[in-house]
Q: What sequence folds into this?
């Protein structure tokens, strides 16, 4: 057994032993055979192009084919391909968890793609979206990147009266300003009653509280949310791919883990033992 396998096994079997103030409540380490689909007990899919490109004028058609989403080398691979399918010029995948959570720590180790028009995201959406609509349901973007900005990722919230360009948002650069697509990075978000914090590789870079939203507007983050992973192509924000964009493009996810707070006499400690060191310098 490798050291990583031992740590994972201990974390799953004895989460309280590994992290005194947190409890691992859900995880996917993507251990299925190469070429297989993600665990169907954990994941479902948004399919099609629909909604005018999912409301963002995107260019892809989301499928659940293993061409676009599969397990490979112990990682989840979401692959965007240039091909005509369902009336679109590109295909990709958008997954969502079958479970939902209110509050906790949400983290995933991800390697994002690069290139004009690419839009990888690790995010959350209120489960009541069908009944109350967006953005009243609340959206928490744990990590978003657009391909023309390879050195920059964003953490954002969208709620009633503060969505789209008006959603409170924090950008983040790596300390050495290398492209995020060069390697895997740990993207995390900690969500408590009136506060949300964002981290990259253990460094906290952005915080929003209920006092940061416009006066008179509702804090939309008191209800269960589900997790989404997707790789969009094109859209209002990133723009369309151009002649410099190569395909296929991949978003690779090494693991995703969800922790809940345990009652404690002191503030929770990040489950990886990492400490907040302040905002990453510009």
A:
């Amino acid at each position: 057994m490798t050291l990583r396998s031992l740590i994972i096994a201990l974390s799953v079997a004895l989460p309280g032993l590994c992290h005194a103030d947190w409890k691992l409540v859900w995880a996917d380490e993507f251990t299925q055979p190469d070429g297989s689909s993600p665990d169907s007990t954990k994941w479902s899919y948004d399919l099609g192009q629909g909604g005018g490109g999912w409301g963002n004028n995107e260019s892809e058609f989301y499928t659940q084919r293993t061409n676009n989403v599969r397990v490979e080398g112990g990682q989840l691979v979401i692959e965007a391909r240039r091909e005509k399918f369902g009336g679109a010029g590109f295909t990709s995948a958008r997954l969502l968890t079958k479970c939902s959570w209110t509050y906790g720590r949400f983290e995933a180790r991800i390697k994002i793609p690069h290139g004009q028009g690419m839009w990888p995201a690790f995010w959350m959406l209120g489960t009541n979206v069908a009944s109350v609509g967006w953005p009243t349901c609340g959206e928490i973007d744990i990590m978003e990147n657009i391909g023309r900005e390879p050195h920059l990722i964003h953490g954002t919230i969208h709620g009633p009266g503060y969505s789209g360009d008006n959603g409170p948002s924090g950008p983040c650069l790596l300390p050495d300003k290398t492209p995020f697509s060069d390697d895997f990075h740990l993207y995390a978000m900690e969500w408590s009653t009136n506060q949300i914090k964002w981290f990259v590789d253990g460094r906290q870079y952005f915080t929003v509280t209920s006092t940061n939203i416009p006066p008179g507007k509702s804090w939309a983050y008191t209800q269960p949310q589900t997790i989404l992973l997707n790789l969009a192509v094109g859209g209002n924000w990133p723009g369309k791919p151009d002649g410099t964009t190569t395909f296929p493009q991949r978003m690779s996810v090494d693991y995703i883990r969800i922790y809940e707070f345990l009652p404690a006499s002191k503030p929770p400690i990040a489950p990886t033992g990492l400490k907040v060191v302040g905002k990453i310098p510009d």
User: Anything to note?
Assistant: Residues 19 and 271 are 5 Å apart (CA to CA). The longest strand covers residues 249-261. The helical segments are 3-13, 15-18, 51-57, 129-132. Residues 19-30+98-261 form a domain with the Jelly Rolls fold (CATH 2.60.120.200).
